[in-house]
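Data availability (excerpt). The following record was deposited with the supplementary files.
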Amino acid sequence: MTSTRNWWWPVLIVGCLVAALPALAGEVGRVTGLPVPRFVSIGVEVANLRVGPRNSYDVIAIYRRRGMPLKVLDEFDTWREVEDHEGTRGWMHQRLLSGRRTVMVIGEAQTLRRAPAEDAVAMLVAEPLVLGELLRCQAAWCFVEIDRRRGWMQASGLWGITP
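Predicted structure:
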């Protein structure tokens, strides 16, 4: 004979596991619940990076490059602690940021190719610091758009993606 008195235990366990899934997958932001670290981009023409999460803190860098990718490391209220491609860290107000995914060519010049292969046809060569829109990645290659051309670049030469 099966008891129906304790039917809720399995439901409770499954509910707890589902609630814990974001934490099991990695850290999440304290404000948004989005994963950290994650990448965003600068959404305005001029953006100040500050020592702390308030307008009263000193400005440590001024970015004049809409679309530049930044890595979000932490969240506090309406502020995001971010890091740029050179490792500079500070706090930026969320209204200065965009969820648009972009990448920046780092290291040496990178070739945009028709297919994700070293021997694929070259479409253009992008110098370091060139920005592109990230469309998707697969294995060691990312499909990006640069100068209205879409193609594949090696992920190792791009800032703005996580391994």
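Summary of structural features: Helices lie at 8-25.
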